[in-house]
Design a protein that fits this description.
The complex is a heterodimer. Chain A has 20 helices and 14 strands. The radius of gyration of chain A is 25 Å and the shape is globular. In chain A, strand 5 and strand 6 form a beta hairpin. By secondary structure, chain A is an alpha/beta fold. Chain A has 2 domains: 170 residues, Periplasmic binding protein-like II (D-Maltodextrin-Binding Protein, domain 2), CATH 3.40.190; 210 residues, D-Maltodextrin-Binding Protein, domain 2, CATH 3.40.190. By secondary structure, chain B is mostly helical. Chain B is flat, with a radius of gyration of 23 Å. Classes of the chains: A alpha/beta, B mainly alpha. Chains A and B meet through helix 1, helix 3, helix 4 and helix 19 of A and helix 1 and helix 11 of B.
């Protein structure tokens, strides 16, 4: 090889090496100095308040307000669409590149992050503001607590299985809102014969049937204790007759034609609109429906809506006056945040989950797990009704808030199969083996 | 140094940057992914080495076989749908008249749209309540043919094939038109002198001359169909109850919905092996076709 080619070769090689080196260089300049010499703190913040609903708008305005009030703190905010948020977060978690602050779920996610040493407790902040900490509803921190360490303060409360109903459709057909399972099946039959969809369901994403219907329905049949035992495999199994019976109830609903055609290919929002347009008599959905309804449904439509709990089942072991629900998301803090950044992060947390923020979130038709008196003139009537309901009934666990991701996925797909004609026994078996595998 | 070896050296230098990038961003990740397949890893925390357990689980999982079967349906539909339709259209639309150009752009149009948009459009066409398809069937008195196109497991795979074929005809059409335009006009003249016309000319002159392009199209079609993901993800998400699961969506759901990164990596390695086997198999079959 002559000299010229050797030179070209080595230049190209060096260039490509330099290029690859650029890609992997780790640029972590968090602190920049302002002209005055005062240290400016920069924090990254990831959230999923990117939608057009009122809660998302409120959260974004709280963040903007914080930036205005704190010129010494720069927030590098990333708003990520809700559907892809969990995946994005889990992906950066796998690479150990968490943002400084991020919206985080209680329960399984908090446990996984803690086990991976990715987050740090915020006891310091909570203890310094005693009044604030005491303002949270009982059990608010349970899902965020490991040992004595608390990892976040919730900014939302999500009952998952509210039975919404259309008052005028019930009146027109001389029906009472169902209190027992037999009432329910009767109502389904009557609506069906009048060509009105009895229950609106959008189960394309597979979690709605599990989170909204089964979590409460199964609790009616088996009782809460059984479920918690089955989830930890402590003396109860998903193949127990009681659980198979609850699957059977759901299957009966499906077989009776309670849901609109093609419900397994509709998404949750479409089902909510379907109900809001008065095409369905009932809808079993979570608190998140309220903020969607508030921004899309007409005033007349909202005046027709009522909310209650799922009916009781014959001989069921669970308390029928309950709603399945979870404490919602809060901000988590990366374990890497220290010093001045940590103080700034505490301030952001307080600004977004403090008493004022909780009040504003509640007024945007989003339930919170914090004692706030609701000014009913600021929210929709159906929200006020749900607010009353939630404050008067007990909360029971939601299946995917307790089960591992893999087991919850098995339940989700199993319910789709069940509603397409699958057998309760074989689906119960699959769920049991997924829980065992863990 | 001879000029031949100098040219070779120059080619090597020219290829080097592309080769480096290819190794870095394609070959290495494949090797890494195969390696991660040996671990039980949730994405967070420590990974435990479990040997071939993930790979044996893939083979034993009935859902994997459902997705393989569904994916083979897509491959067959694409190879025998996209390629022949594109070829016929190319033969019909090869002239540069205004009408032909217009139809050509119309066929290519879906390629310009994002696949999410295409998925949503077809989702609405198939919509069980307000879908145009069911509405049309009602309108022409075929109400009994109405179906839940995307959630009835008996028809959903076939419903999904239509947009997949429709969406990807465009690029093959362009390839075939380019190939047809590359046939030297002497060939046409020679065929004319020999009296070959119509179907005789098509099968003895035109098709043999574009055969290499068809082979390339088939390979692209197979590897493209095995990667099929976006349209299905938007329209059904692989559901209901895994009935429209494809290999890629099966891998995605395991990795990113239930966070089994190790298992997902094993699945992707298996997908690569299946793709290589299929592409090699099709090449072998078509080579034999050459000799006949």
């Amino acid at each position: 090889m002559n000299k010229k080619t050797t030179v070209i070769l080595s230049v190209v090689l060096a260039a490509s090496l330099a290029l690859t080196a650029c890609g992997s260089s780790d640029d972590k300049s968090d602190k920049t100095t302002t002209e005055g010499g005062k240290e400016k703190v920069k924090l990254t913040l990831w959230h999923n308040y990117s939608g057009d609903d009122q809660r998302a708008k409120t959260m974004r305005s709280l963040i903007e307000q914080f930036e205005k009030d704190h010129p010494d703190i720069t927030l590098d905010v990333q708003a990520i669409p809700p559907d892809g948020y969990r995946t994005r977060l889990k992906t950066v978690a796998a690479a150990n590149e968490m943002p400084d602050l991020f919206v985080m779920w209680p329960g399984v996610m908090t446990k996984e992050f803690q086990a991976g040493n990715l987050i740090q407790p915020i006891n310091g902040l909570l203890d310094s503001k005693k009044e604030w900490k005491d303002g949270f509803l009982p059990g608010s921190f349970d899902g965020f607590t490991i040992g004595t360490d608390i990892y976040s303060a919730p900014i939302a409360l999500s009952p998952t299985s509210i039975l919404f109903y259309n008052k005028s459709l019930f009146e027109q057909n001389n029906l009472e809102v169902p209190k027992t399972w037999d009432d329910m099946m009767h109502a389904v039959e009557v609506f069906k014969s009048k060509k009105i969809t009895p229950i609106s369901l959008g189960n394309k994403a597979a979690w709605p049937a599990q989170s909204s219907i089964l979590s409460s329905l199964a609790d009616r049949v088996t009782g809460t204790e059984w479920f918690l035992n089955a989830a930890t495999q402590g003396g109860a199994k998903f193949t127990d007759p009681a659980f198979i019976q609850s699957l059977q109830y759901l299957k009966d609903l499906g077989d009776a034609g309670a849901f609109q055609s093609g419900f397994n290919s509709l998404d949750n929002t479409q089902a909510e609109q379907y109900f809001a347009q008065g095409k369905a008599a009932m809808m079993i959905d979570g608190g998140w429906a309220l903020t969607n309804i508030a921004s899309t449904a007409s005033t007349e439509a909202m005046a027709q809506m009522g909310a209650t709990v799922l009916p009781s089942t014959p001989g069921g072991k669970g308390d029928p006056n309950t709603l399945a629900g979870v404490v919602g998301t809060g901000l988590g803090m990366s374990a890497k945040v220290t010093g001045a950044k940590k103080d700034a992060a505490y301030e952001v947390m307080y600004a977004l989950a403090g008493p004022d923020a909780q009040k504003r979130v509640l007024e945007s038709n989003q339930l919170v797990s914090y004692k706030v008196d609701l000014d009913k003139s600021k929210v929709t009537p159906i929200f006020a009704e749900v607010y009353e309901l939630v404050n008067n009934v007990k909360r029971t666990p939601v299946y995917d808030g307790v089960l591992s991701s893999a087991a919850a996925d098995e339940v989700n797909n199993g319910l789709q199969e069940l509603l397409m004609g699958g057998s309760p026994e074989s689906i119960a078996k699959k769920i049991q083996s997924a829980v065992e595998k863990k | 140094m001879t000029s031949a070896s100098r040219t070779k050296a120059f080619i090597a230098v020219g290829l080097l940057p592309a080769l480096l990038l290819f190794v870095l961003f394609v070959i290495l990740p494949i090797i890494w992914s195969a390696y991660y397949g040996f671990f039980d890893w949730k994405g967070i925390g420590a990974a435990t080495f479990i040997g071939f357990d993930n790979y044996t689980e893939v083979v034993k999982d009935p859902i994997f076989w459902t997705s393989l079967k569904n994916n083979m349906l897509i491959v067959i539909a694409s190879v025998f749908g996209q390629v022949p339709i594109a070829l016929v259209l190319a033969l019909l639309l090869v002239k540069n008249s205004r009408l032909h150009t217009f139809i050509r752009s119309a066929v290519f149009m879906p390629m310009v749209l994002s696949s999410v948009v295409v998925g949503i459009i077809w989702g609405y066409i198939y919509h069980p309540e307000i879908g145009i398809l069911n509405f049309l069937l009602d309108g022409i008195g075929l109400g009994s043919w109405k179906k839940e196109w995307l959630s009835d497991p008996d028809v959903s795979m076939y419903s999904l094939m239509v947009p997949i074929i429709w969406n990807y005809i465009g690029p093959y059409l362009i390839m075939f038109i380019a190939a047809l335009n590359n046939i030297p006009s002497e060939m046409d003249d020679a065929a004319k002198i020999d009296g070959a016309e119509g179907s005789r000319k098509l099968f003895s002159v035109t098709l043999p001359l574009v055969w290499d392009t068809i082979k390339v199209a088939v390979v692209l079609c197979i590897s493209g169909s095995l990667k099929a993901f976006d349209l299905i993800y938007v329209m059904t998400g692989g559901g209901p109850a895994h009935s429209t699961e494809l290999l890629a969506s099966y891998m995605y759901n395991n990795t990113f919905s239930i966070y089994r990164y190790g298992y997902g990596s094993a699945v992707s390695t298996v997908i690569i092996i299946i793709s290589l086997l299929l592409v090699a198999g099709s090449q072998y079959l078509m080579k034999r076709g050459d000799r006949l």
